[in-house]
Write a structure and sequence with these properties.
The chain is α+β, with helices and mostly antiparallel strands. The protein has a single domain, classed as Phosphorylase Kinase, domain 1, CATH 3.30.200. It is built from two helices and five strands; from the N terminus they run H-E-E-E-H-E-E. A hairpin with a 5-residue loop joins strand 1 (about 25-30) and strand 2 (about 40-45). The protein is globular, with a radius of gyration of 13 Å. The two termini are about 25 Å apart.
Length: about 100
């Protein structure tokens, strides 16, 4: 994981543990956008996985993302599983590593 992501990864892992307190997972860096968003994949011990978007709320809001995602609900876009707009976290279903 790139050095700039360690603090973000720790913040993300701590938040995900509150969302999934009964599930063990390994967190790995998945991608970064040109803005402040970072994406991490949480791979659960039962074989499932989700992607967590971290958008620091002092840099940007996840609210517009959540609004657009609802507009595209019938299209094959990542489904929002959990969101915390105050902390800037969004958990998405994992569509895998294939680029569409």
């Amino acid at each position: 994981m790139p050095g700039y992501c360690y603090a973000t990864a720790n913040r993300t892992e701590n938040w995900l543990q509150t969302v999934y307190p009964e599930r063990d997972f390994d967190l790995s860096f998945a991608a970064a956008d040109a803005d402040f968003r970072r994406y991490f994949r949480a791979a659960f011990s039962d074989g499932g996985s989700v992607v967590c978007m971290d958008a620091p709320p002092d840099k940007m809001s996840v609210a517009p993302y959540l609004k657009v995602q609802k507009l595209f609900d019938m299209v094959n876009v990542p489904q929002v599983l959990h969101a915390d707009t105050d902390l800037g976290f969004v958990v998405l279903n994992d569509l895998g590593n294939t680029t569409f």
